[in-house]
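Office hours follow-up: a student asked to see two folded examples consecutively, so here they are.
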Amino acid sequence: MNQNDVKRISRLTAIVTQLQTKRLLSATQLADRFNVSIRTIYRDVKALEQAGIPILTEEGKGYTMMEGFRMAPVSLTDNEARALITAEQLLLNNADSSLSKDYESAITKIKAILQQETKDKVELLANRIAISPAIVRHPESSSLTSIQNALTTFQVLEITYQSKQDGEITKRQVEPFALYFSLNESWLLIAFCRLRNDFRMFSLDRILKINQPNISFQPHQLTLAAYLAEKQKNFSTPDIPLS
């Protein structure tokens, strides 16, 4: 097998991975990503289809993978594996227990596909990374995973929330919009609050109770960048919850 064959196999594998992580990718985007011609991408996609990979073409838009198809990555480079292990050490000390638990489960599955030599290296690295006890925080919330689910499926959440300003406890229905990490507040939920009829920020560690009543809402047209820019007009930082 010559060098060109090796490069093509690597590219074909990477294309499958890209299509599994993105809903839709155009031939132009793939060509730019892999620094090849659009004609080469056409040939690659055809080769993958002939190999039985269920790639669907949306006319005038691009390529997508058939719903439900999954193929594990063939391998990770040493650098990719090291990056994941480093992130693991940071996330395991995260202030939300649900995120830490799910990430630990995910990283265990990823470790299972590593080659033995890479496994040995990442195990060594994991034992050589420590987080200063001065900044380690005990988990202060356990709702991040359920909030992420509601955010991505456009489901209303019912929360019981305690205000930081005066300690007032209120019950609200909110439409999750985005998540924001602040060094001062840790995780903040940005949501449209039906009680205040406006967008608000909620510190996850002040959400006393959370339920999902199976009520859908229409996705908001506002972008996260626009929301943060507008908020920063009134404050030196967009971190102020104002819930």
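And the second, which I mentioned at the end of office hours:
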Amino acid sequence: MRQAKMSLVAMATMLAVSSGAQAGDTEFKFGGYVKADVMFSDYSNGAPDSGYLSRQFYVPGTIYGDSSNGNQVVDFHARETRFNFKTSTDLDGHKLSGFIELDFMTHGDGNERLSNSYSPRIRHAFVSYDNWTVGQTWTTFQNPGALPENLDFVGAADGTPFARQTMIRYTSGGFQFAIENPETTVTPNGGGGRITSGSGMVPDFIARYNFKTEGGAKFTVAGLARQLNVEIDNLDTQEIAYGVSVTGVIPVGDDDIKLSATAGDGLGRYMALNYANAGVLDANGEIETISSYGGFAAYRHWWTDKWRSSVTLSGFKADNNEALTGGGVNKESYSTYVNLLYSPVKPMTVGVEYMYAENTKQNGDNGDLNRVIFSVKYVL
């Protein structure tokens, strides 16, 4: 009997937390969603192995596949499912909050043979006190509010800045200033495997301004400055990199247009999921930055209050110095999406999406991906 009473208390506590509970001056809230995807994919150069990253979602540069695997595959997974926990405390007029969120994407552990067991990973883990934010969350260089409503995990991956990392950020009105975790990726002289370096003492510096127009449109302008640093074996080289990104969400009646445009020298991992590196080593072992630019445009139309569709075009291009990088590096990537989504009740969405992507290397080799995604999503 005592065990049954304890179980009822635990269940009541969980239900209270899931809908939002309060203890003293602290409010607790549990959230997240359940999402199941079925993906039918056709890779022009052969499908990657089961469980590989591009079998979970579209990652530019990973669709070249393995010709020995065949071209057409189907994947069922619920790995995008996520949960989060938030607290908010009023301290004599000051606001203190904490947030942590986990999902099950990107891991190579687990398999599809028996239990489909995958480890959780940290997406966000940060604390905020008034205008200060410390911890891991979206890079200040990215505006996640401008991402289109696509069923693919990222959607418009080619044309958007995308990173989560640990930072110290200060917000004042529409302005945000941050120092964030540095990491350098470069191409060896003549080509070859990516060199990743966490050397150096200089953080990445990012400034951003968010503003609205009288018509309800929302825009952001962000600037990035960072030091590329490689200190590996006999290499000891540094170079300055920078970038600018502009995003917008423009209402058109009940519909909306979402836009993003980004360009810079040495953007590297900040763009297109690190489709291109930030730089390449020359014959003297010095870093030469790689210029790149990308963007996307998406239009969302509401057919009724329950039916809607989005059409998205996304692209990225890197200006490689082929004499240094060789011809095997990634050059340009494009993708397009069209979907139909239905929400019979507000927390639930079912939908279908078609996407096409094409990636081209510097030497002209290319690969393409056709994919149809069916999804069911329930917001907790």
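Two things to take away from it. The chain has one domain: 22-379. The radius of gyration is 22 Å.
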